[in-house]
Design a protein that fits this description.
Layout (H helix, E strand, L loop, with lengths): L6 E5 L3 H12 L3 E5 L5 H15 L11 H6 L2 E3 L2 H5 L4 E4 L5 H14 L5 E4 L19 E6 L8 E6 L5 H13 L3 E4 L9 H17 L5 H12 L5 H8 L1 H15 L8 H8 L28
Parallel strand pairs: 1-2, 1-4, 2-3, 4-5, 5-6, 7-8
Antiparallel strand pairs: 6-7
Bound molecules: nicotinamide-adenine-dinucleotide.
The site of nicotinamide-adenine-dinucleotide has 28 residues, from helix 1, strand 6 and helix 10.
């Protein structure tokens, strides 16, 4: 199939936006980026390098020189400049519905008429965002997972009007950057695998938050059971505990079920600025977290 995407614009280059931009650059797409915080891209890159080290060499980035690939990304100080000639725009700003809607409104006003607008949201369905644009048929969810841990997959989900051609084009693009597309046939909160991961997250946060177990034992058990190099708490540290909290709140606001509310202990971590790898402390301390030490699994 003909690849209709040549230029990709990534809007919001924190943890995930940076990873998506660099991965697309590795596959020779023209990539531009914009963030209200000009330092975000270099911070995202630093954290990605820590992730590479602790993820035990698993990486979907086909390069030994990630800096060289990152240098190919054209970081713009102006949103309109970043969007110029873009075929595909990936929004990766914080998980806040109003912010995403406002961002999509601006993307719609500034991006080329033919551009596809995708959100990397971890939980918000595109149907809640598409109405901020005049092109709902070209809007969709493309939820990439934490690429730095070697998780090379992305949920792809359309909204109420997304055309089959747009889904097909983006699915082909996801494959073209070495990722596995997970197609969602009917809109659901949490998409495909992220809903499964969220069920695990909710359970382990509850067990830790209520003081039943030490988070390290859950990670150890997970790593031994699945043969992976990170457990749920190490993954949450890499994702960002502020991001985890916001996602849990989307589920809670949808259900209003107290069981869906993130534990107070997680909020206390945010209040202490313990956000994970991005502030050098979350559940673990960085850049040398316990879980990447050789004796961690011995307990
Ligand atoms: P982050 O907080 O690391 O980065 C968000 C970035 O958006 C920041 O750099 C911030 O300066 C920027 N920003 C804020 N307002 C902006 C605006 N108006 N215009 C442009 N940039 C703006 O967040 P993240 O972890 O990268 O998450 C971004 C999105 O991706 C969220 O929707 C999140 O749920 C989703 N996501 C995150 C992960 C993860 O592992 N962190 C995984 C999958 C999906």
């Amino acid at each position: 199939m003909e690849n209709k995407i040549r230029k990709v614009a990534v809007i919001g280059t924190g943890t995930l936006g940076t990873q998506i931009a660099v991965l697309a650059a590795c596959y020779d797409y023209e990539v531009s980026a914009y963030d209200t915080d000009e330092e975000s891209f270099s911070r995202g890159l630093q954290n990605l390098k820590i992730a590479f080290r602790t993820a035990g060499g698993k990486s979907p980035f086909p390069t030994d020189d990630v800096d060289k690939e990152a240098n190919k990304v054209m970081f713009c100080k102006d949103l309109a400049e970043a969007l110029r000639d873009a075929d595909l725009v990936i929004e990766a700003v914080p998980e806040d519905l109003e912010l995403k809607r406002k961002t999509f409104e601006r993307l719609d006003a500034l991006a080329p008429r033919g551009a596809i607008l995708a959100t990397n949201s971890s939980s918000l369905p595109i149907s809640k965002i598409e109405t901020a644009t005049t092109r709902p048929e070209q809007c969709l969810n493309t939820h990439f997972y934490y690429l730095g841990a070697g998780i090379n997959m992305a949920d792809v989900m359309g909204g109420t009007k997304t055309t089959p051609e747009v889904i097909e084009t983006v699915t082909a693009w996801v494959r073209s950057i070495g990722c596995v597309p997970l197609t969602v046939k009917k809109e659901i909160l949490g998409f495909c695998f992220n809903r499964v991961w969220r069920a695990i997250k909710r359970e382990v946060l509850y067990m830790w938050g209520e003081g039943f177990v030490d988070f390290r034992d859950i990670d150890r058990a997970w790593m031994i059971f699945t043969g992976t190099t990170w457990g749920p708490f190490s993954l949450m540290d890499n994702v960002g505990l502020d991001v985890v909290y916001d996602i849990e709140m989307v589920y809670y606001n949808e259900s209003k079920d107290p069981k869906d509310h993130p534990p107070e202990a997680l909020k206390a971590k945010l209040d202490r600025n313990e956000l994970g790898i991005k502030t050098n402390k979350g559940f673990y301390t960085y850049p040398d977290p316990e879980y990447s030490r050789p004796d961690f699994l011995k307990g």
